[in-house]
Design goal:
It is built from seven helices and no strands. The protein has 242 residues and is an all-alpha fold. Helix 2 crosses helix 5. The radius of gyration is 23 Å and the shape is globular. The chain starts with 15 loop residues before the first helix and ends with a helix.
Length: 242
């Protein structure tokens, strides 16, 4: 008798959608548990990068801060001559995401590139911390709203996708070895192989890369259309009410 699954008139079977949702949630929890070390490391690196970015802005000279402020004024400008359009923001935000995905994909195939993928996440945290520090320092309480939209909302999906892709590619690399382990003692046992995945693992990393690109495309679209529109709306509201 199976106590976990019961069916019949007294115990009707769960709907297919509910079973699928439970399996999906269970898969997410299992993935996070199996990769908790990598996820924690990524969180620490992003946080440290954000702290360093905020410190970098605070330590800037007044002239440099005014130059950043002038750039952001152009970003918010309502005129198409000086205001950034949705297309311009999309073209500026998508290429860095693609570069990040390529670095992560390569790090899953060639282990020596793994530190570069971690450094890419730290640099992302640096830019987020720098932007948040600018908004809060320049606009005060209003800047917190700007930071919430431009830093948190516009980067949440792509940052989560980057961490997931990094953890998934690392897990694939560890589970799929292209170079078999040698029996007995060997002087070269500490040498890291150049290619550390099998053809199947390579295909899995490419599939994860495709999902990452889809998430990056959606994130860049959100930042260029919805995020930018929300920022300009907030700026207009705050300007109208002083």
């Amino acid at each position: 008798m199976n106590d976990l699954v019961k069916s019949g008139p007294l115990y009707p079977a769960a709907p297919a959608a509910e079973r699928s949702s439970k399996r999906f949630g269970s898969a997410i929890r299992r993935f996070m548990f199996e990769n908790r070390g990598t996820i924690a490391l990524c969180a620490v690196l992003v946080t440290l990068g954000a702290v360093m970015g905020a410190a970098a802005y605070i330590s800037m000279s007044l002239d440099d801060k005014n130059a950043v402020f002038a750039y952001m004024q152009n970003y918010f400008g309502g005129s198409m001559l000086i205001g950034a359009s949705a297309g311009e923001i999309f073209k500026a935000s998508l290429p860095p995401l693609i570069v990040t995905g390529i670095i992560i994909a390569v790090s899953g195939i060639v282990p020596i590139f793994y530190p570069f993928a971690l450094a890419r996440l730290a640099f992302k945290g640096f830019s987020m911390g720098f932007s948040a520090a600018f908004f809060i320092a320049r606009y005060g309480a209003k800047g917190a709203a700007f930071a919430l939209v431009s830093v948190v909302l516009c980067n949440a999906a792509t940052l989560a996708a980057s961490v997931w892709f990094l953890a998934a590619s690392r897990q694939t690399r560890l589970e799929s070895r292209a170079v078999p382990k040698r029996k007995g003692k060997s002087k070269r046992r500490f040498k890291i192989p150049l290619i550390a995945v099998s053809p199947k693992g390579f295909a899995e990393i490419l599939m994860c890369f495709a999902f990452y690109l889809a998430a990056s495309l959606a994130g860049a679209s959100f930042e260029s259309v919805i995020g930018h529109g929300m920022m300009r709306s907030l700026y207009g509201i705050f300007s109208a009410f002083g």
